[in-house]
Design brief:
With 419 residues, the protein is an alpha/beta fold. It has helices at residues 5-13, 22-37, 116-125, 141-144, 169-177, 229-248, 268-276, 308-321, 336-340, 372-390, 403-416; strands at residues 42-50, 53-63, 67-69, 72-73, 85-91, 107-110, 129-134, 164-168, 182-190, 194-204, 209-219, 253-260, 284-290, 299-305, 325-329, 346-352.
């Protein structure tokens, strides 16, 4: 490996790459060009994504004072009449049962998100619409004015009309301090509009067992207001470095590399890949996913959606290389979950930071939080670990998924709206 080549490529990739945007496409072409510079062909595979088009969104306190509140519309949630809905306001905290006993005919504020289960409860209880939050009390002045454009991930059978808007958490504090009695919510949208995202796929065919595939994945999209250097530029350059190694050292098994688009809106790129390549999944012996690596301060994690023997071996190799890994079995909210939910053994690597350390999903996710030496170390370890599996004389990865995955699989698919 070329020392710090991952960091140099990260410098090129560290710009806002929102799902379905022209900038995401620009990043896809950068990935293709980097693969081809090493003599490995790569292709862009497009897929459809929800791209609800909000045409009008407003939130205002109507009594005891009149005050407009900046918000964005949550796509796919539903819509109001053109004049909106005026109704009593109630704060339901995180949506616990004790707080939703009197929501009929009201507009609710939840500072604990709006998961499908809570949405269903509120609809059944007769709530008319909702407000949810993003950001924090202590954001800087610029970030306090920012609210991302999001859409709801709904189960297939959820056809309810329950319009929602999003405000900054700091704004929510001001809203509550105004003690509103009634509010008006306006949301007009084409909730079924579609957009296009894309995956980038490259492959190096195995020299001895080409029918067996080890698939490396990382998402390359970011969120609004973030250049996504850590989340997940680092994972993207990590698998690029692994590709660099196998381009120079032909593998015994086929190695495939998938840079997934639209992970940030619900693992959509990896799920699209699994659907588009359903007939090939039986040949994938292991998916190795990377989501946030090489940060300056933190502790490495290894997450198993595969037989625990694979994770135990990874921990053992970590000790040999002088790297400690915290481990957890089950599903994690990253692209490995799409493969595990498609019955492919999978695992993920990531770095967890101390409280107050590096942050994601904001302007604070910058390349300054990534350390070239830490990034090189995890790239070198990941390559050495994968080579043990890729070049093993027999397939060492059991096909059966652990109980932690089978127990969580259907719940996770519902949570993410995967079909």
């Amino acid at each position: 490996m070329n020392k710090h080549s991952a960091y140099r490529f990260l410098e090129k990739l560290a710009f806002e790459r929102v799902s379905g945007s022209e900038k995401e496409l620009e990043a896809a072409h950068l990935l293709v060009d980097e693969c081809r510079s090493m003599g490995v062909d790569a292709v862009i595979e497009p897929f459809s994504i929800p791209a609800p088009a909000v045409t009008d969104v407003r939130l205002e306190i109507t009594s005891p004072i009149q005050q407009e509140i900046y918000c964005t519309g949550v796509g796919r949630t539903g819509q109001t009449p053109e004049e909106g809905i005026e109704a009593p306001f109630v704060y339901i905290y995180g949506g616990e049962d004790e707080y939703i006993t009197d929501v009929k005919g009201k507009i609710v504020l939840s500072t604990g998100g709006m998961k499908p289960e809570l949405r269903k409860k509120l609809v059944e209880a007769g709530a008319l619409g909702y407000i949810t939050t993003w950001g924090g009390y202590y954001d800087d002045e610029t970030m306090k004015t920012q609210v991302p454009h999001r859409f709801a991930r709904l189960p297939k059978d959820d056809t309810s009309n329950f319009p929602g808007v999003m405000i900054n958490l700091y704004t929510a504090k001001q809203l509550l301090q105004a003690h509103p009695e009634t509010v008006r919510l306006v949301l007009r949208q084409d909730k079924d509009a579609k957009g296009e995202s894309r995956n980038v796929v490259a492959e190096i065919r195995g020299t001895q067992k080409p029918e067996e595939v080890v698939l490396f994945s990382a998402h390359y999209d970011s969120v609004e207001f973030s250049n996504g250097a850590w989340d997940n530029g680092t994972g993207s350059v990590t698998i690029m470095e692994i590709l660099r190694y196998y381009a120079a050292n032909p593998p015994k098994r086929t190695v495939r590399f998938v840079w997934c688009g639209s992970e940030e809106i619900g693992l959509m790129g990896s799920w699209a890949y699994c659907k588009q390549h359903a007939d090939e999944l039986k040949n994938i012996i292991l998916n190795i996913n990377f989501d946030m690596t090489g940060v300056l301060m933190g502790n490495n994690g290894m997450f198993g959606s595969c037989d625990k023997s694979v994770i135990d071996y990874g921990v053992f190799m970590g000790k040999v290389h002088g790297i400690h890994f915290q481990t957890r079995m089950g599903l994690m909210p990253s692209d490995s979950t799409s493969f595990a939910c498609s019955d492919v053994p999978a695992m993920s690597f990531g770095t967890m930071t101390p409280k107050g350390g590096a942050e994601i999903h904001s302007r604070r996710d910058t390349i300054d939080n990534v350390d070239p030496d830490e990034l090189d170390q995890i790239c070198a370890f990941a390559t050495a670990f994968s080579a043990e599996i890729v070049n093993a004389k027999i397939n060492v990865v059991p096909r059966a998924l652990p109980k932690e995955v089978t127990d969580e699989k259907e719940k996770m698919k519902t949570l993410l709206g995967l079909e």
